[in-house]
Design a protein that fits this description.
three-stranded antiparallel β-sheet; alpha/beta; 58% helix; Ribosomal_uS2_flav_dom_sf; ribosomal protein; 10 helices; five-stranded parallel β-sheet; structural constituent of ribosome; ribonucleoprotein; 337 residues; Small ribosomal subunit protein uS2; Rossmann fold
Length: 337
């Protein structure tokens, strides 16, 4: 079954590219035609590339990897945060800080600082041991860190792959990922460079509906990978990485669906068993009737419906005539004497 249909892509406006004067010649092979000064993207190639990217993300997550969702433009901020949170993946939807991947050691220290500030009760001035001004400064620091690093606060290591919306705007993220040999999955508009992306999806990266649709597809792939990972289809979770609450909810929903399917099958099974039992009983009853008829035929002497044997009747007549002749012979001898 296809991950997404051609109709969904058309309704979301994935086929609209940029103006003809704003294009990258390397994208020529992904362009279907030009209409009213705007390039139209070949959605047949988009469907093929979507399936390829879907399988890659699914296998990556199933084997214990994680996907970093990146999209800082206004059209992508909401969908990036929503879909990443749905599957428990890290995301960046505000501002990409230089070195977020290549200098992850320093970024990780800032994440630890963020977690420390989140433990502070800024309303309890007397019990905190800080002055009002110090608490105010710490609150501002916490808000700033939460805004820029809140999406990756639980990311303990470099991601296994990166999903990027608009590679031209997120050129820093693309450059850092390529430097660290991290696979890049991204939407390619007609003004992008396809050589920078490992798993490309030709499409519109400016329309909210198009970005939301493609981001949801990647999130669905990650969700299926999580189910395969914890269902025995991938690497088992380690003791250092226990199941998070969102993972438990996802697995519980999957198990509930399987239980519902099993109950429906179990409900249909008794009806099939009853039908089979009735059929077997009917066959057994017919066999018993045949056996009783055979026994009755053996106990009753056979009746010759064709009548007496004519040969036997003739023999009986000859014997009677001989007996009469024998009786007549002594009588004749007595008369002569």
């Amino acid at each position: 079954m296809a991950v997404v249909t051609m109709r969904q892509l058309l309704e979301s406006g994935v086929h609209f590219g940029h103006q003809t004067r704003r294009w990258n010649p390397k994208m020529k092979r992904f362009i279907f035609t030009e209409r009213n000064g705007i390039y139209i993207i070949d959605l047949q190639q988009s469907l093929t590339d979507i399936d390829r990217a879907f399988e890659f993300v699914k296998e990556t997550v199933a084997h214990g990897g994680n996907i970093l969702f990146v999209g800082t433009k206004k059209q992508a901020q909401e969908s990036i945060a929503e879909q990443a949170q749905r599957v428990g993946m890290p995301y960046v939807n505000e501002r990409w800080l230089g070195g977020m991947l290549t200098n992850f050691g320093t970024v990780h220290k800032r994440l630890q600082r963020l977690k420390e500030l989140e433990q502070v009760d800024f309303d309890d001035v007397a019990g905190s041991g800080f002055t009002k001004k110090e608490l105010l400064m710490q609150r501002r620091e916490r808000d700033k860190l939460a805004r820029t690093l809140g999406g990756i606060r639980d990311m303990a290591k470099i991601p296994s792959a990166v999903w990027i919306v608009d590679t031209k705007k997120e050129h820093l993220a693309v450059a850092e990922a390529r430097k660290l040999h991290i696979p890049v999955v991204a939407i390619l508009d007609t003004n992008c460079d396809p050589d920078e992306v490992d798993y490309r999806i030709p499409g519109n990266d400016d329309a909210i509906r198009a970005v939301s649709l493609l981001t949801r597809v990647i999130a669905d792939a990650a969700a299926e990978g999580l189910v395969a990972r914890h269902g025995g289809g991938g690497a088992a979770p380690t003791a250092e990485e226990p199941l998070a609450e969102w993972e438990r909810e996802l697995l519980a929903a999957h198990e509930a669906d399987q239980s519902a399917t099993a109950s429906v099958v179990a409900a249909d099974a008794p009806a099939a068993d009853v039908a089979a039992a009735e059929q077997t009983a009917g066959v057994t009853h017919d066999a018993q009737e045949v056996a009783e008829a055979a026994e009755a035929a053996e106990e009753t002497p056979g009746v010759d419906v064709a009548g007496p044997d004519t040969t036997q009747v003739a023999d009986n007549s000859v014997a009677a005539e001989d007996a009469k002749a024998a009786e007549a012979a002594p009588s004749a001898e007595t008369e002569q004497a």
